[in-house]
Amino acid sequence: MTSLSELSCLCNSQKSYAQCCEKLHLGNAHAKTPEQLMRSRYVAYAMKKADYIYQTYAHDKQIENPLNEIAEFAESCRFINLKIILSDHDENTGIVEFCVSYIFQNLLCQLHEKSRFIKEGNNWKYLDGEIFPTDEVHIGRNDTCPCGSGKKYKKCHINV
């Protein structure tokens, strides 16, 4: 049986979870770039690791993003894809523009955001972002699941 650590990382890095985001989630390493932090935050949402998401907010933004609200959002969605559009950083600040696809209550949703990151101490932290408007698409029970499994939605993610 394949362990979670051996599976491909959900951030689409083409590495195993163990070689990619797991070491960040476990606290054995810190993100070296804003993009790496963004990818690890996406995987944390997909894996319902609210503590990690909370800890990677900039200190001044943590109060605006309580742990229980992070957990509720992560639990309510099925994250299915991450696409990095743009990534750039200097020594202390960075931006990552990305698009995340997720399923929420039979809707295919997208979060298209241009995020800002800062360094606190030696660690990259998520500061805030500009969210771009996107459309939600209703998913019918007999539609092909948008996760790419090839199955009908009712046989794949309808209970999420």
How would you characterize the overall build of this protein?
The protein is α+β, with helices and mostly antiparallel strands and 160 residues long. It has one domain: Roll (Nuclear Transport Factor 2, Chain: A). Helix content is 21%, strand content 31%. The protein has helices at 22-25, 34-46, 50-55, 67-76; strands at 78-89, 93-104, 107-120, 123-132, 137-138. Strands 1, 2, 3, 4 and 5 form a five-stranded antiparallel beta sheet that branches. β3 (107-120) and β4 (123-132) form a beta hairpin.
SSE blueprint:
Blueprint: H1 22-25, H2 34-46, H3 50-55, H4 67-76, E1 78-89, E2 93-104, E3 107-120, E4 123-132, E5 137-138
Antiparallel strand pairs: 1-2, 2-3, 3-4, 3-5
Helix content: 10-25%
CATH topology: Nuclear Transport Factor 2, Chain: A
What's the Cα radius of gyration?
Answer: 16 Å
Name of the CATH class: Alpha Beta
Let me know the average pLDDT: 92
Number of helices: 4
Number of strands: 5
| SSE arrangement, N to C | HHHHEEEEE
Summary, kept brief:
The protein has helices at 22-25, 34-46, 50-55, 67-76, and strands spanning 78-89, 93-104, 107-120, 123-132, 137-138.
Spell out the key features of this protein.
alpha+beta; Nuclear Transport Factor 2, Chain: A; 160 residues; 5-stranded antiparallel β-sheet
